[in-house]
Structures are given as C-alpha cells and as structure tokens.
Amino acid sequence: MDNFSVIRDLTLILAVSLPVLFLFRKIKVSPVVGYLITGILIGPSGLHLLKQTGQIEVMAEIGIILLMFSVGLEFSLARLLRMKSFFIVFGPLQVIITFIASYFVLHFIGLSLQTGIFFSMIAALSSTAIVLKIYTDKGILDAPHGKVAVGILVFQDIAIIPMLLVLPLLRGGSELVLSAVLLQLVIAVLVIISIVALSRYIVPRLLFAVSGMRSREVFTATLIVLLLGTAYCTHLAGISFSIGAFIAGFIIADSDFATEIAAEILPMRDIFNSLFFVSAGLLLSVSALITEITLIATLLGSLILVKAVVVFAIVRFSGYPSRTAAISAFSLAQIGEFAFILFQSGLQYNIINAHSYNIALSVVILSMTLTPFFIEFIPYIADLINPASKDDGNNGENSTVKKLQNHVIIAGYGLNGKNLARVLKETGIPYIIIELNPDTVKSMREQNENILYGDITKTNILQKAGIQTAKVMVYAISDPHSTRTSVALAKKLNPSLHTIVRTRYVTEIEELNRLKADYVIPEEFETSLQIFSRVLQEFHIPMNIILRQINVIRQGGYELLRSEDGSISPMHLMDIIAKSVTETYFVEEHSFAVDKAIKEMDLRVKTGATILSIVRQDTAINNPSGNEVIRYGDVLVLTGTHQAVDNAIDLMQSSQ
Q: How many angstroms separate the first and last alpha carbons of the chain?
C-alpha cells in the first residue's frame, strides 16, 4: 500500500492548493506564493499531513527541468539581439552591483565567504514569473519600465547558468580555490559547446523527420527523450539537470517547431512546477519564522532597499526619468523563483543549513507577496513625491526642437506613433513626438525627427512640446496610469486641446471619459468592429449602413458592445437583409458562366437574381439581352435579394 502513497500525496497537494490558489487569485497574489503556502500548511510545520517527501522531490526535480527548458525556448538568439540595449547593459550591471552590495551587507552580519556568495547570488535574482504576469495583465510590457524590467529579467534568467556551475565549488567544508572554479567552468563550457554543436546538427533533422509522421504521440515522446536525455548528459558531466534542460530549450528556440513544442510542454511544466514550489514550502519552519521575525524583517527591508537603489541608479543614470526608474526599481525588488533551485542545491552541497534556509525562504516568500502591491502603488507615490521635477526634462539638450503652432503632439514612438508621424509628415501637418527611450530619441534626432525626450506626466515637458498652442495630442503608449495622469494635466494646461487616446482595455474608457479625453480607441472593441464589418460585408449589407452603425457604437462609448443584451436596434438588420441589394461579380476563367448566353444560364429562374449590366473592357452593356454571351474577364452587376445574389454567385463560381 505504501508503494502507492505518492497518489495520496498528489491528491492531497492538489486538494489543499485549490482553495489556497482561489484565495490568492482574489487578492491578486502570484500562484507561486500560493503553492509555497500549500507546502507550509501540509508540511511538518503545519498540519503534518505529508510525511514522506522523497517521491514528491523527484517530481519537483522534473518541474525544475521543464521550467528551465521553457526558459531556454524563450531565449532565441534573435530575441536576445532585439533586446540588446537593455539585456547587455542593464542586466549585467544589475546582477553584478546587486551581488557586490548584498555580499557586503551579509559579510557585515557575519556570514562566511561561501554562504555570503551563495545568498548574494540569490539576492541578485528577481521573479520573472510574477513581474511578467502582472505587467502582461496591466498591458505595460511595452512601456519604458516594462522594457527595462524584461531586459534585466532575461539576463537574470541566463545568469542562473553560471551560478549553478559555481555551486559545487561552494560546498561546505571545502576551500574556495580560484583555479578549481576556473577548471570547473572550462569543463562545463566544453561540455555545453559539445552538446550544442551535436544538437544543432542532429535535433532539427530529427524533429523534421518525426513531424513528418504526423503523430502527436510520437512527437511528444521524442521531445521528452531529447529534453531528459540532454539534462541527464549534463548531469553525468557533473553539471546540473537544469543547465541541460536550458540548453535543450535554447537549441530548439530558433527552429520551426518552437511554438508547437512550447504548447506541448506548457501543461506538464505547470503541473510539475506546482510540485516544485510545494516541495520548497514543505521545508519552511513556521516556528523559525516566528522566532526570527526581527532578523527576517531586517533582511527583507535590506533586500528591498539594496535592489531598489541599484536598479533606480542604473536606470536613472542611463537617461530615463525618475518615475520610470522608481517603477522599475520596486518591480524588481523581490527574489525570484529560481532562488528555490539554488536553495535545493545549497542544501544538497551543504552550503547552508536548515535554519539559514528557513530564514532565507521566509524573506523570499514575503518579498514575492509584496511585489503586486509595489507595482500597483509605486506610480502614484512617484507622482506625489515628484509631480513635475525639472530633472525629468531635457536640461537644455532639446534646444533643436522646433517651435510649433496648431500642431499634433504624439506621446510615444512605438508602432502607432511611427505610423502617425509618417502620415503627418507626408500631409504636411506639424507635429512633435515625446518619447522616454533615450536611445530612440538620439537615433531619431540624428534623422532630423522633431522628437523630445521626457515624461508626458510632467508639466515642463508638455510645455516644452507647446501644449498651449497644440491642436491635437495623441496617446500611443502602453501605460494606463501615465496616460490618465497626462490627459488630466494636458486638459488643464490647454482646455481646447483635442485628445485621442489608444487603450488596450475597455475598463479604461469610463475613467478617460471622466478626465475629458475627447476620443478613446480601445483596441479590444476596435478589433470587434473590424470583425463584424467584414462579416456584414459578406452578407451584402450596404457600406453606408455599416459605417453608420460603427459611428453609433463609437459615439456611444462602445456601450452597444459592452451591454449584456447585445441589442442592435439602431441598425434593423433583418429589415435591411429583406431588401434587394446590388453586387458585382468578376467572371473567372473556369466559371460556369464563361461562353454561355444569358438565356442559356437561366439565372433568374435558377437563383432569383438578375444581371443588370455587363462591364467589358471599360464598356458598360446595360440591360443586356438574353442572347448576350458572357466572356472571361467580364464584370457582372447583379441585383436581387441577399439570398438570390449569394445563390447566383455560388452558381457562377462552379465549373458546371
């Protein structure tokens, strides 16, 4: 019976985790924290429901492998090159400076060299899972602080690789010898290069051959063999399973199968990852948390302060305004999920003891829990502390900006901003761009673009852009909070200004309307308008009727699409469909109508539609006789009910 205890344990874990996850979702806290709490509840420090953890830990190791594999899938060479300005500069600076600062703090409280290095590596990492999830939900990944955070997180996730390589050299009871570290790194690099070289040659061909079998089962089985096989090879070479899994993902990332593989691996990864985080929570001692609450609070405060100061300084020194730097800093002021991988290895290599682990794990969980609240409230705090700071301006560097009258202000130089600027330039309408990315500003200024560096929530920046004399301001950024703040400020500075706001979410409409935004374009509903427009065209609804309905929806604040009953009374579709319509049809080479007289087709009897006119080589044959022969290339003007016209087109498209 004990041989099947793992089934009981899995059932127990899932049964306890469901209500915990439900509660944490309600309060908008990451599910990672929920799984950790589940482990604490059922573990030795809680209800003591889970006694034997050996089999759970094995499955948790599979979760680590799948997590690292999925991370590898995300880091194709092409993606890294696109993020180079953030990845190459911000990432290394953050990891190195945070590591050094953390080590000095830990050394000050009396930790040994090995333990200090170990915990400093953990302190340098942030939570990719939590930050990206919150940023994605808020729609601010493309905001300046979103790009900064993603660049740093990508580098951190790759930095875990050398950290895992160094861990065996920090094992307790051994001296840290530089030559040994270098030798181990050289061996690891050679092994990794060998695996990558072989896999680059073999894996794409293998996956192509397997996909040709058109068997999902065979494809998935092959994928698992490649993943676990690569991980086990690195394990045999003295490197962790995790590095092998990352290599396997990185190899496949540039292949044509990466998207399909990610879809296949995601369900398994999520299930096994939950076991990994639960197993980490099993080791936490609640009694140690209560006993060492003062130390834990001190370490937590020091961690947040060190990480926030480091990121703030890096981002601010790189030319971004203090608001962007502050949001980026506190978004990354936690310890990430990869810390649990290092914790497991730290216990295995005797680098840390159970007491240190419990204290560190408490700090990790608390820092993760605070992150959603930081991201939510830091923008408001930053605006209160520094509402119109002059250091967020341009300090005279934008003296080349042209003085404008009756112009357009474009907030943000992303895809929408670029397209708008191009159209305005071609039509001769004056405009100025406000952008927060200093690299973009520099490159565009070299191309003589009228662009201003600054934060649109600051009075002096809007004044420098000529807000008092501007006619229109367009918000093409992905930062809802900055947009709302700027709209209110812009309307205060120039009440007659016409503001056009792009927003990703419908929930922003009412607030923006309250702030007196003149025109709000929600991407969700604009996509819906495009879809229903195309559908109605297929039913031959006249274009003027479609455009009128679109205007009714837009003028009503999209209330028609937001209402529960789905009423479309302004349009009276059924009455329109019942009426006759006119449609054109191009006669193709293999059409049923080619080389047939009109009376021979007998179109009116068969379908109910009538041919009003034939356009042939720019000549119109109106009211054609029954003897008129249809030729390839003719354009027929058809009339009749909607159904009759559809039937006539279907008939003529046939080859018989």
A: 71
Spatial contact of 46 and 226, defined as CB atoms under 8 Å apart:
no
Q: For position 392, what pLDDT does the model report? A: 46
Token duo for residue 232: 């086990």
Half-sphere exposure of 624 (CA within 13 A, CB side): 23
Phi, psi angles (nearest 5°) of residue 513: -65, -35
Q: Give residue 399's pLDDT.
A: 44
pLDDT under 50: residue ranges of the chain:
1, 388-400, 565-571
Determine the pLDDT at residue 179.
Answer: 64
Angle CA(110)–CA(116)–CA(121) in degrees, nearest 5?
A: 155
What are the domain boundaries of the chain? Answer: 2-171+179-382, 390-517, 525-575, 579-653
Q: What's the residue count for the chain?
A: 656
Q: What is the pLDDT of residue 393?
A: 44
For residue 421, CA distances in Å to 60, 407, 426 come to 52, 12, 9
Is residue 409 exposed (0-12), middle (13-18) or buried (19+ Cβ within 10 Å)? buried
2-171+179-382: what fold? Answer: Na+/H+ antiporter like fold (1.20.1530)
CATH of the domain spanning 390-517:
3.40.50.720
3 state SS of 616: strand
611: left (phi over 0), alpha (psi -120 to 50) or beta: beta
**Cα–Cα distance for residue pair 609/623, rounded to 1 Å:** 14
Q: Hunting for tokens 């792009």 — which residue is that?
A: 502
Distances (CA, A) of 581 to 5, 266, 578, 640: 71, 50, 9, 6
pTM summary value: 0.63
CA 310, 359, 332: angle at the middle one, nearest 5? Answer: 25
What are the angstrom distances between the C-alpha of 346 and each of 46, 114, 410, 518? 24, 10, 51, 58
What's 622's DSSP letter?
E
